[in-house]
Design a protein that fits this description.
alpha/beta; Rossmann fold; 2 domains; 6-stranded parallel sheet
Length: 376
Amino acid sequence: MAEPAARRLRIVAFGTFDVRSHPRVAVLLEGLAEHGHEVLICNVPLGLDTSWRVRMLRAPWLLPVLAVRLLAAWARLAVRAGVVRRRLGGAPDAVLVGYLGHFDVHLARRLFRGVPVLLDHLISASDTARDRGVEHGLVDRLLQRLDQAAVRAADVVFVDTVEHLELLPADVAPSAAVVPVGAPAGWFFQPVARPPRDPLRVVFFGLYTPLQGAPVLGEALRLLAAEGLPVDVTMIGRGQDLPATRAASAANPRVRWLEWVDSARLPTLVAEHDVCLGIFGTGPKARRVVPNKVVQGAAAGCAIVTSDTAPQRAALADAAHYVAPGDPAALAAALATLCRDRARVEALRRAAHERAATAFSPAASVVPLLARLEQA
């Protein structure tokens, strides 16, 4: 439990985020509460995830769907903002706009005049579009302007890695903060030793976006099948690269495919595995992130196998097994090595969980944000 806050702040979590699909928001809210601050929720989920928004960029005729949903959500948010003010008997100390809040931050500025607005700029619209293959010059310029307008509308902008901090406009970066990703409390499980004769249980979960490099994993699973080792793999999720991943791994009969698992059930399911796989993409975005699945898998007591990138090494240090991005042979070899060396697996599981407990807990994750808020 975190130490009680020196000054109890009243913070409103505002926007169209969905805590079921946006674990980052849940972590921040849990962490602020653990530090003794009062968190009030002013939230109307938009119901459109990142993949839907990217789809709109490829099919602009779908944009009215976004406009209609956004306006309807904003009308409800305006009403709820009034309820929050009445409950507080005045203005809050700060308003935190959850990520994917490029539009919400402007509404927050108008509804809570004179109150510091904090924007979680975890996802850059232009960076995400490029990673998803939306390369149209006009679209990219419009999304860059959307990003810039959002960060300039906030009093405090925060991102998840130093690499993302460097992408902020020059006039915004000096006052911004790096707030690392963390895992919600419900993800923390104490590792339990497995019988060494059991198959090695490996799990991957995600949206199959290019930065995750799932087709690399699929090819690694094909190579691993030739080894004849007892490695059972569970693949969870659906998305852009799922068909290519399934096709690449078709020769491996020990792979189980689950296209959807309820977010309340996912932590327990992941904790039942020995190894949690991170990301293996080679694009610029893949080299700038620490994915949620890595910190969540660590919290769940899994050994982590992920790509060797600067932000992931900074986050996990020696508590992970790293492989070169985009290298299926290296990934297959890593899994084969862990299958043969269960003592190494258990050591990595303990190291990952200890790292998560100290660095990825909600209370630890929000420390940089609270430090920056004190200066706002």
